[in-house]
Structure formats: C-alpha cells, structure tokens
Amino acid sequence: MKRRDLLALGLAFLPALAHAQSAIPQTAPSPWSLHEAVGAPDHLKLRATFRSRVESIDGQARPGLNSSDTLLDLRSTLFAEYQAGPLRIGGEIYDSRAYGGDLGTPIGTNDVNVAEVVQAYAAVDLAAPFGPGSKARIQAGRMSLNLGSKRLVSSEDWRNTTNGYSGMRADIGLPKGVSATAIYVRPTTRLPEDRPSLLENDQAMDRDNGDVVLWGGIASKARIVGQVGAELTYYRLEEEDGPTRPTRDRQLDTFGGRVFREAAAGQPDFEIEVFQQSGQISRSLVPNVPKQDVSAQFVHADLGYTFARPWNPRLSLRFDYVSGDRDGGDYGRFDTMYGMRGAELAPSGLYNTVGRANLISPGLFLGLTPTLRDDLVLQYRPLWLASRTDSFSTSNVRDPSGTSGNFAGNQLEVRWRRWLVPDALRFELNGIYLAKGRFLRNAPNSPRTPDTAFGAVNLTAYF
Predict the structure, then answer these.
(1) What's the structural domain count of the chain?
(2) Angstrom distance (rounded) from CA 298 to CA 314
(3) Largest CA distance in the chain
(4) What confidence tens digit (pLDDT) does each residue in 114-139 have?
(5) Could you tell me which residues come within 8 angstroms of residue 14 by beta carbon, excluding any fewer than 6 positions away?
(6) How far, in Å, CA of 57 to CA of 73, rounded?
(7) Considering the domain boundaries, does residue 219 fall inside one?
(8) CB 297 within 8 A of CB 278
(9) If you placed Cys at 419, which of 74, 160, 226, 373 could pair as Cys (CB 3.0 to 4.6 Å)?
(10) Is residue 164 within 8 Å of residue 188, measured between CB atoms?
(11) pTM over 0.85
(12) CA–CA separation, 440 vs 446, rounded Å?
C-alpha cells in the first residue's frame, strides 16, 4: 500500500468518528455492562472486549517480506472470575485473527491465535499471613503476567495475541509499602506456527512448553525516599531442545533493579532500570554444538516533567541501551524474554522493526491530554546499533562485516486515542515514520525500499 493509501485509510475513518461523536451526549451515561446484562452476582466478574484494527505499511524495512502490506486484525476476549470467600477461579479466552495477508506478509503467532484459553487458574487470598497488615495471594494454573516495568515479563496488549504462562505465582504484601512477587512458570507455545495455517486462521490448542522454564521474581518498596520507589528483579530462564523444536538452549540469569518516581502535575518524575544478563547459550540451533558464555546489558532512563497547564503536557527525555553481539568473547545480545515493546519503543505487527535488542536510542517524548476523553503522544527517536556486526534490533537486517555503519535512522511516532463512549468504546490511531539511515540503506540484506511509513486504525469495544 502506498503512502497516499495510508492517508486515505485514516481519512476513511473520520466520518464515522465524527458521526459517533455527534451522537453521544456530553455527559454520557454509564456504559452498558456485560456483568449487569446477564444479572451476574457480585462475586462473579465478567468482562469482554472486541478490537478491530487495520494496519498498513509501505517501505518495509525487514528483509524477505512484501514492500507494502495491509492487514485486518480482529481480537475478541472473554474473561470470567468467580470468588467464594478467599478462593478465586478464573479463565479467559482470546480469539485473534488476521485477514488479507499472503506468503510475503509477516504473519506469525503474534497475530493469530484462534479460540484459545489463555487463562484457567485458581487462586487463594490469605489475610494477615505474616502478621497484622500483611496479605498474600497464591495462584496456580494458566495465567497472564505483567510484572514490574513489563520489560521482561508481560502479556502485551497492543499485539493482536498475548503471552500465556502455566505454573504458580505468589504475591506478598507487607506493611510500609513492601511487596514481592515470585513465579515458577512454563510459557505457553502458541499454535499453529506454520505460515499457511496462520494465513487460514486455523485453530490448534496451545501447548504448555515443557522445554522452557522461567522462574524468579521482584521485590519492591514504595517511598524509599519521599515519592521514590524501588524494585529488585531476578529471573532464571532454562531452555532445552524439544522433540521437534531445536533451540539455542538458553540458560540465562537476568538480575537488575529499578528506581522511579511516578508522574504528577507540577512535579518532575524519573525512571532508571538496569539489567545484567549472564549464563550460557548454544552457538547455533544444531544439536550438541559448543556453548558460549553470555554477558549482556540493558539500561533504560527517563527524566520527565508534567506541567500544571491546560492539556497537562508531560515532556521527557528517554534513553535506551540494549547490548548486541560482537565477534569473539561472550555472547552479548540482550534477551528481553517475554517483555512488552509497543507502549515504549514501537508497535509490533507489520512494523516490528524496533525492539529491545542491539539498540542505542535517546528519545524525546511529549504526552498531552486535551480533554478527559483524549490523549495524544508524540515521540522522536534516533536509532543506532550497539554492535555494528549484529542484526539491528528486531529487523533481521545485518552486515557481518560492520562496514555499513551503525546509524539505522530516525523514527517519529504519533498515537491518538479518544473515548467515543467513556469506558466502553475507544478509537486509536497509530503512525510511524522511519527515515532510514546509512545502515538500513546499505546493509547487504536490507530491502531496497523507500523510507518506512506505518499506520494503524483501531476501534475497541469494552463490555
């Protein structure tokens, strides 16, 4: 799809948007509730969503794919949880489908997962297990996880599918803002995985991956100094080859911490998060190849200020360093495991060029809330490779010789969201423009396409 078609795609939604807005009273009533409609008792929670998204790209930066592409993504979810005293039993179904692709479209399990049970758990809440003011919850089964900053373990929402995990989770809350979360889980493998089945939106039940184990957790303390909070994080990822699935046999220890102050009007805020990753990884997918020691790093920093002015503007400077691999020595490419990206770096989907790997990127962020229904985000990021000889971020573009330089380009991102019906129907517009730098223009396997333009138009209903 050409750039003019991307513009036409966005403009096509505007009449419907204007019509929907004009039909809504300025003081809209409470949104229709699935819970109320079915007359559910108070101890039964029911939630449902339906999201439709049209996404399109021109000037694809990743090799081996269509230069231009358009997809229609549909996602439906249904969540239910029943509580009887301290016991909770819950489940959630995701139905994620994509239409309009072909064999040159980057469709994968991030886009398609039909009629899948992503949660099926039991949990028990414990009152004062460690004395007055303490609490705990123990959860077992298949579950979603969003831990800490979500940069290592998450169930990302922007993506059309989500991550599921099977195992156990324990949460502990203590007086004075002390809390901890521990997990021992097996990430689920979304099925099917082959391109023809995904293009047909075929259904296959996901599998609890017995060849991968993730365990560890987070300890946190609110207000260690004033309004500043802190976290300590450790995860252990253990992976081995399956009967039909060769792997890099990752044995990774990721340790780090975060200090932060939440944004507030008329106040500065900040966040600094650092991780060191060590362990071992096989040199290739070939069985019984020698292993290589791992030494990788990740740093995220954000310094912002929210002005006590109309539109509540928040301006921040950001910086991300994510190590890449270099010839000789330890393996240096940081593994973000199951972390989110869409809320911070760039959307996945057809774009999926910039993620948390082999990246050096400062950034300028501006967030605005013109009304109670609207929020607007503008973000600019220049992009460099941390290692010239490793593939750039998540693009799969690589120059093993390192002679194509280390500047990938300039990325400009915009996101506008508006509640058409408060808490019930939300419109979202996403746009990315990537002005390619020397590396993405000259690397041997880089597509000879123009600068990348990506757009997505979303409409989400909440019940």
Answers:
(1) 1
(2) 25
(3) 67
(4) 999 999 999 999 999 999 999 999 99
(5) none
(6) 14
(7) yes
(8) no
(9) 373
(10) yes
(11) yes
(12) 6
Neighbours of 15 (CB within 10 A): 9
In degrees and rounded to multiples of 5, residue 198 shows phi and psi of -65, -40
Extract the tokens encoding 277: 């990753």
Domain residues for the domain of 357 are: 3-77+192-197+204-462
Q: Is residue 98 part of a domain?
A: no
- CATH number of 420's domain: 2.40.160.100
Q: At which residue do the structure tokens 């989770």 appear?
A: 169
Residue that the structure tokens 């071992």 belong to: 280
- Smallest Cα–Cα separation from 336: which of 175, 439, 214, 240? 214
Report d(CA 325, CA 415) in Å as an integer.
Answer: 32
407-421 and 425-436 strand pairing? antiparallel
Per-residue pLDDT band for 38 (boundaries 50, 70, 90) equals low
Q: How many CB atoms lie within 10 A of CB 204?
A: 14
How far apart, in whole angstroms, are the C-alpha atoms of residue 386 and residue 19? 48
Alpha helices in 122-237 (DSSP H): 195-199
Vertex 160, ends 324 and 258: CA angle to 5°? 45
**Residue 140, both tokens:** 């077992």
**Per-residue pLDDT tens for 163-220?**
999 999 999 999 999 999 999 999 999 999 999 999 999 999 999 877 899 999 999 9
Residue 219 near residue 232 (C-beta atoms within 8 A)? yes
User: Residue 180 falls within a domain, yes or no?
Assistant: no
User: Residue 183 pairs with which residues in a beta bridge?
Assistant: 169, 216
Identify which of 267, 193, 179, 277 has the alpha carbon closest to the alpha carbon of residue 224.
179
- At residue 39, the pLDDT reads 57
Q: Is the peptide bond between 15 and the residue preceding it cis, with omega within 30 degrees of 0?
A: no
Q: Encoding tokens for residue 79?
A: 């969540």
Domain membership of residue 260 (yes or no) is yes
Return the number of other C-beta atoms located less than 10 Å from residue 419's C-beta: 19
> Rounded distance, CA 323 to CA 361, Å?
12
CA–CA distance, 116 with 204 (Å, rounded to integer): 8
Degrees to nearest 5, angle at CA 71 with 392 and 393: 10
Cα angle: 13, vertex 18, 22; to 5 degrees: 150
Beta strands in 106-198 (DSSP E): 113-127, 135-143, 165-174, 178-189
